Amino acid sequence: MDKPAKNTVCLWYDGDAEDAARFYAETFPDSAVTAVHRAPGDFPSGKQGDVLTVEFTVMGIPCIGLNGGPEFRHTEAFLVPSRNR
After folding, report:
1. Is 0.70 surpassed by the pTM of this model?
2. 22-41 b/e with 16+ CB inside 10 Å = b?
3. What Cα–Cα distance (Å) separates residue 57 from each residue in 23, 25, 47?
4. d(CA 3, CA 15)
5. Which residue, among 36, 44, 43, has the nearest Cα to 19 in the 3D structure?
6. How far apart are CA 13 and CA 17, in angstroms?
7. 56 HSE (CA, 13 A, CB side)
8. HSE of 50 in the Cβ direction (CA atoms, 13 Å)?
9. Torsion over CA of 66, 50, 16 and 75, rounded to 10 degrees?
10. pLDDT means over runs of 10, the chain (85 residues)
């Protein structure tokens, strides 16, 4: 049985979390989009069917992409560690 991850990286996006997750999944080995969660109904800043969160892995590292809006800018701070260490 696999051990659960100790940490999950949460990355904040302004509407493009699914596109970003799919880019990571296509670019890095051992990466995949595992779930896309959509809004069940309209809400103040969006509509039914909008992507709220995306679960994905990058080189085996569990991640969540959150379409949280423009309040926090996405940066290059998320780096995939080398497997050779």
Report:
1. yes
2. bebbeeeeebebeebeeeee
3. 11, 7, 27
4. 32
5. 36
6. 5
7. 25
8. 16
9. -30
10. 75 92 95 97 92 96 91 65 47
